[in-house]
Amino acid sequence: MTTVTDPQSLGQDMLELVPDLQFDHQEILRAYQQVVDRVPVTDPEHPEHRLRRLGLTHRAGAADPWHDAGTGQFDQKTGEKHFEESEFAFFNEELKDTYFHHLYQSLPFRIGRMRLVPLHPGEIYHMHTDASRVAHVAIVSNEDSRLLFRTGHTYHVPTDGRVHLLNTRLHHSAYNAGGTTRIHLTMTKVE
Questions:
Q1: Closest C-alpha to 75, from 150, 116, 131
Q2: CB neighbours of residue 135 within 10 Å
Q3: What pLDDT score does 73 carry?
Q4: Separation between Cα atoms, residue 143 and residue 157, nearest integer Å
Q5: pLDDT tens, 166-186?
Q6: Contact status, residue 81 vs residue 112, Cβ threshold 8 Å
Q7: Is 33 helix (H, G, I), strand (E, B) or coil?
Q8: Are 187 and 103 in contact (CB under 8 A)?
Q9: 50-64 burial string, b = 16+ CB within 10 Å, else e?
Q10: Sequence-separated contacts (24+) of 4-11 with Cβ below 8 Å
Q11: What is the pLDDT, as a whole number, of residue 167?
């Protein structure tokens, strides 16, 4: 396994740092707390579920704009496509006063699903590919939380306010071997 600390050494086929774009990490943390404070409890028996699969964008007429972006684009068993990324064209109205909306408006490319994705200690995603590239901004992380490409390269997204555009069309996974939860803001590019 090859650990990559310099994004340029991973190669643009796997990773691109969006040039001339860096956000204030303290404002990102504040915006995350604003979201946590506002997400409604929809399952009183499991109030912690409100933070799972949390989306900041949604489709027109979504019954639950908070969680509409939380599902996968493809059925894992059949490969059937559930939606087009471009359908997630609406930013949650209740969050338009947060720094996340500023970030959303500042991106130099169009995105679909914009999500807050926790990865708890000991969690690992299965190896998979996505239909589009996914941009990551680390909100909370630890050095042992990494993205893993089938090539054996790993990459830690630092909490630097930068937009790390990963080529998730390549086989990849993510794991958290650290002792604290990792939280990323992920934004799927409309391509």
A1: 131
A2: 23
A3: 81
A4: 9
A5: 999 999 999 999 999 999 999
A6: no
A7: helix
A8: no
A9: beebbbbbbbeebee
A10: 4/153, 4/154, 4/155, 5/156, 7/155, 7/164, 10/153, 10/155
A11: 95
Tokens 């306010």 sit on residue: 161
Tell me if 146 sits within 8 A of 156, measured CB to CB. yes
Helix and strand numbers (H, E) in the chain are: 3, 12
For tokens 């796997």, the residue is: 14
The answer for residues whose C-beta is within 8 angstroms of residue 84's C-beta and 6 or more apart is: 112
Q: What per-residue confidence (pLDDT) applies to 83?
A: 86
> Residue 128 has what DSSP assignment?
B
| Cβ atoms 123, 61 nearer than 8 A | no
How distant, in Å, are the alpha carbons of 48, 60, 177, 185 from that of 135?
A: 26, 23, 22, 8
Q: What is the pLDDT of residue 74?
A: 77
What would the two tokens of residue 176 be? 């958290």
Distance between CA 29 and CA 137 in Å, rounded?
11
The residue behind tokens 């609406």 is 90
Answering whether pTM is above 0.85, one says yes
Q: What tens digit of pLDDT does each residue of 1-17 get?
A: 655 556 655 666 889 99
